[in-house]
Amino acid sequence: MKQGDLVVRKSYGGDMLFRVAAFFGGQAVLRGTDYRLLADAPYADLETVRDPDELGGTRQARIHASESLRRMSEERNKLTERATHGYQEDRRKPFFELPGKVLHLDGDVNYLKKSMQVYGQLGVPAHGMHCHESQMPQMLTRMLPLYHPDIVVITGHDGVLKQRPDIQNLSSYKNSLNFVHSVHVAREYERRLDSLVVVAGACQSHFEALMQAGSNFASSPGRIMIHALDPVYVAVRAAFTPFRETIDISDVIAHTISGRQGVGGIETMGRFRIGLPNMKVLNAPQNVNIV
After folding, report:
1. What is the pTM (predicted TM-score) of this model?
2. Residues 13 and 129 in one domain
3. Are residues 134 and 190 in the same domain?
4. I need a surface site. Which of 41, 122, 199, 248 has the fewest CB within 10 A?
5. Is 19 left (phi over 0), alpha (psi -120 to 50) or beta?
6. How many angstroms separate the Cα of 130 from the Cα of each of 6, 116, 134, 154?
7. Residue 166 and residue 254 in one domain
8. How far apart are the first and last CA of the chain?
């Protein structure tokens, strides 16, 4: 067995697919391939997987991801159509769209790539950074003034430590404290909740602490696994909800893969705007009849 191998834990019935991230003291450090869970297990508990598609859980996770992407696209179209309705009816007003800008920090390079692909497919202006969760506060201190985002996503891997079952104690989590420190940095940069939308957390993260630190949306109220694309879904909804409207919290949460046990939040205004004129339309060749 080597770093990068795909494995399952026999003691859990092989319910979730992991990638071996490192080896430490007779244990393998594992990162979920579909869910944002950080775990560890003894070598003897691991079984190498050659064909991930043979695992029912992996197939189901991919189906959920495909469905989530479809919903994101549908909601994007509905929101933009509503926001631009008056301008679409009057062709003399060629408009342009300004979705909210996203700064996405991710502790998993593979999840970051997937997230950036989704932002690109849906037309969300986004800048992604991969760094270890412990480095995120310092990274945000540099990146926030540089990119001036409307939405910041702070995510990666997390989990509750087996030997510390007190879920109210931040020391019982693998990365929740790092996420909390990162949210503090974001709120020091911009305290107004509607000026910078903060989406924070991963699997089993300390939801209450993240919200108290200043998140608009966070995981995980039920201390459950959240899908890799759940933070992205929330960010996309924030990016395309008109700035005069409140993001529909119940609808957003209900349409994430993990649902209300996985994601929660507070009332927040959207970050989508339209503008005039659209220079591409104005400068396009015109059909002119000369008499």
Report:
1. 0.82
2. no
3. yes
4. 248
5. beta
6. 21, 11, 12, 11
7. yes
8. 80
What residue has token string 């919290």?
Answer: 249
63 exposure class (CB count in 10 Å sphere: 0-12, 13-18, 19+):
exposed
**What's the structural domain count of the chain?**
2
pLDDT tens-digit profile, the chain (291 residues):
888 888 988 888 877 888 898 888 888 989 888 888 888 889 889 988 877 666 655 556 666 667 767 777 777 777 777 766 655 555 555 778 899 999 999 999 989 999 999 999 999 999 999 999 999 999 999 999 999 999 999 999 999 987 777 899 999 999 999 999 999 999 999 999 999 999 999 999 999 999 999 999 999 999 999 988 999 999 999 999 999 999 999 989 988 888 999 999 999 999 999 887 766 655 555 444 443
Angle at 142 between CA 136 and CA 145, to 5 degrees: 125
Same domain, 177 and 34: no
